[in-house]
Design brief:
Layout lengths: L1 E4 L5 E5 L11 E8 L2 E7 L3 E3 L2 E3 L6 H13 L1 E15 L4 E13 L8 E7 L1 H6 L10 H16 L1
Parallel strand pairs: 3-8
Antiparallel strand pairs: 1-2, 2-7, 3-4, 3-6, 4-5, 4-9, 7-8
């Protein structure tokens, strides 16, 4: 377990197991590495971040992760694997499930309502990008990047 305080002053608990969950995950986040670059989406308001979002009614966590990645980046992913989860203790605490996935196919991006498309960044570019979303700058994201790189070496 890894704990930290985010930029908004909220306690965040990050875990690298599959529960049991104090709060059921209703959000997803997905790490996709392709040719040594991370798939990121460019959110119109928040900036550069990993693709993710809310689980829709009747959808599994994996289905939500696949859908969100495609909606935000036009990238089809496969081989989805559970990676971690974290709980943000704000006014309405929530839990986000984190997956890793592999690129299956990349379609042409047609602008949607939430994002300006995708960008592929090396780890160094990601760590130093001037327009990162607030959650991409926190200690939890640094810890997850470190852990996912360790896992990729094993795979």
């Amino acid at each position: 377990m890894f704990q930290f305080i985010d930029e908004n002053g909220h306690k965040v608990v990050l875990r690298f197991d599959q529960g049991p969950f104090e709060i059921e995950p209703k959000h997803v986040l997905t790490f996709v590495n392709y040719h040594d670059k991370w798939l990121c989406t460019i959110h119109k308001k928040r900036g550069v971040e990993f693709p993710g979002g809310k689980v829709e009614p009747g959808e599994t966590l994996k289905q939500a992760a696949i859908r969100e990645v495609y909606e935000e980046t036009a990238v089809h992913i496969t081989d989805l694997k559970w990676f971690a989860y974290y709980i943000v203790y704000d006014e309405s605490p929530f839990c986000k499930a984190v997956f890793t996935g592999k690129v299956e196919k990349i379609d042409e991006f047609i602008e949607e309502h939430e994002t300006l498309g995708m960008t592929w960044l090396t780890t160094e570019e990601l760590e130093n990008h001037p327009n990162l979303s607030f959650y991409m700058r926190d200690e939890g994201m640094k810890k997850m990047l470190q852990e996912v790189k360790n896992l990729e070496r094993k795979w």
